[in-house]
Amino acid sequence: MRALKRYDRRGFTLVELMIVVAIIGVLAALAIFGVRRYLASAKTSEAKNSVGAITRGAAAAFERETAASEILTAGANSGTASHSLCDTADAVPDGGPPMGVKYQPDTTEGEDFETGTATGGWKCLRFSMTQPIYYQYHYVRGARVPGVTTGPTPGTGVNGFEAGAVGNLDADGVNSYFTRGGTVDTATGQLALATQINIENEYE
User: Fold this and answer.
1) pLDDT tens digits, 119-133
2) How far apart are CA 11 and CA 201, in angstroms?
């Protein structure tokens, strides 16, 4: 009877405790990694959504018919309406991507996203952001967003554009890029957009 009672009161061995501690450590490491990846994904969704909105703005601007303002004499015809892409917009913010911090866009007329005309810049795209942002945003007509090396090449000259976001969430000097472009088919006059956003170094 005494032997049975002593057996019932036996505790955990050192090996068992070490195994439990090791398992807890592995689970904690996985949890930390998962939380960090989740937070990074939440930040990159800003860039993906915004690049998509800029692209849609460029497509909508192209679909709008534009015509020169004219004063016609009796019996004269106006010039024909045309479709054209918006001209290049200034990068926001202009000093490069925020380095692991947020930038508050200036909503004053003539600053940041409040620049451009009816035919060029952010006003032509009808795109604006008023909340703090993690990325620098671009819209470039006829060329690539600076620093981008992969993805479909947009049309050159007046026949293409690229919208993009450049970021550096961990401030390590390596940028992430989110871009989407489009090209006007000169034969049909139709605008073709890239099927999806091209991403380089997503979580940098």
Assistant:
1) 999 999 999 999 999
2) 51
What does DSSP say about strands 135-141 and 191-193: parallel, antiparallel, or unpaired? unpaired
Residue type, 82: S
Q: How far apart are CA 51 and CA 38, in angstroms?
A: 20
Q: Which amino acid is at 57?
A: G
The β-bridge partners of 141 are: 161
User: Is the omega angle on the peptide bond into residue 98 within 30 degrees of 0, that is, cis?
Assistant: no
Enumerate the β-bridge partners of residue 163. Answer: 139, 180
Using only C-alpha atoms, the chain has a radius of gyration, in whole angstroms, of: 27
- Nearest alpha carbon to residue 143 among 156, 134, 133: 156
Domain boundaries, the chain: 35-64+83-200
Residue 69 pLDDT exceeds 90: no
Q: Which two tokens stand for residue 122?
A: 């952010």
Q: 65-74: long-range contacts at Cβ-Cβ below 8 A with a sequence spacing of 24 or more?
A: 66/118, 66/119
Q: Output DSSP code: residue 113.
A: G
Amino acid at 47: A
